[in-house]
């Protein structure tokens, strides 16, 4: 039995595990491999959906199901099994149509299974799809097939702040509406967050809450940092994460996951 038996470490992907050089560092890979050999569970909790993360799964050792779509699902890429999944309520199309009419500059990606629908795509949309290595289908909102696991609203920060205020002021009881970076505003079903799914994954694996550790760099990671025994963040994290009170380690490009595993090595 290894020293990390039944310890769970969940990491955000972009700008946390995945560096600016678009890879996972050898130092991180070596540390994660050691963590797993010693009995730990390592996984990713990402805003990316299944099709936008699938091609990156091999970059890091991962021995547990992955939290995808910003907390809308848990999916095991090793077996092809969906552990659990939530969906936006059927009213989402009407609410998106109203929002798009109120804030015409906004664009979005809507995820239905492995299909990505596009509304009013802009430069943020094209950059996001290119980085993910995916394509989307542009359609009128009414013609998009539901259910959606999540929607990513896309524009400059000021526009997205207007969108968030509009949606939250009308439909807060139906949706989680949270920034994953300055130009991406994520919408999932109410209660579907990275934090909630980390707890469900821990229960699935038989991990006690005291042995859950999470690391992330942006606002959408705060719900999982809130359930972490020590809430870690890379030094390149968003100001809101620093202000929240995360324990800072080195930056994403300084192999912050390896640094966290070193900290855990001293605890266990």
Q: Can you put this structure into words, describing what you see?
A:
By secondary structure, the protein is of the alpha/beta class. 32% of the residues lie in helices and 23% in strands. It contains 9 helices and 14 strands. Strands 8-7-6-9-11-10 form a 6-stranded mixed sheet, covered by helices on one side. Strands 2-1-12-13-14 form a 5-stranded parallel sheet, with helices on both faces. Helix 1 packs parallel to helix 9. The mean pLDDT is 96.
Poorly predicted tracts of residues? none
How is the main sheet built? 6 strands, mixed
Strand order of the largest sheet: 8-7-6-9-11-10
Order of helices and strands: EHEHEEEHEEHEEHEEHEHEHEH
In short:
The protein is 32% helix and 23% strand. It has helices at residues 26-37, 50-53, 92-102, 123-132, 157-171, 194-205, 222-225, 239-244, 256-267; strands spanning 8-11, 41-44, 66-68, 73-76, 81-85, 107-112, 115-119, 137-138, 150-154, 175-181, 184-189, 212-215, 231-234, 247-249.
